[in-house]
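Deliverable D5.2: sample structural annotation.
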Amino acid sequence: MYLIVGLGNPERKYEGTRHNVGFEAIDTLAKHFSIDINQREQKGIVGKGMINGHKVILAKPMTYMNLSGECVQPLVDYYQVDPETELVVISDDVSLSTGNIRVRKKGSAGGHNGLKNIIARLDSNVFPRIRVGVGECENGDMVAHVLGRYSAEDREKVDASFDKVIGAVELFLEGDIDAAMNKYNVKEKID
């Protein structure tokens, strides 16, 4: 069983913001693979189904971004998921150009409070993650940036990035995260 978690904030006012790109990625995966996300479990909303013959749980923590680990860690424990090989966390990344993705096997939180809380709750930073670029903060107000909405041009780039997320998840489920990293990681930082 694999657990794929997208990070975001639960209230309607956060829909479409940069910080909620993880939720959007989960919604895209759910639609693409016909998985209903409608069950409440462990402070989150989850859906169970199959992706290319693999049992998966898609999850969106309803704890708000900074407390994402309060959902992720109990799900990991309950379903006996190995964080190193059976968990993927999808989040936004302000150090990547809008629409690019970066796949990692492990790593620091990189200043991302949702990842920081998951790392603290799991007591480990060794879990795969897919970071979706939402562009650099240009005005110095990081909170306003991540809680802001995309321009029409950036919206198109982010929507297109979900095909990359689907491809990366498929490779991860086949046990080939290295191939996902080689195919989808970009060298550039910000445009």
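Annotation notes: Residues 14 and 147 are 7 Å apart (CA to CA). The radius of gyration is 15 Å.
The annotation will be released with the project's public dataset once the embargo ends.
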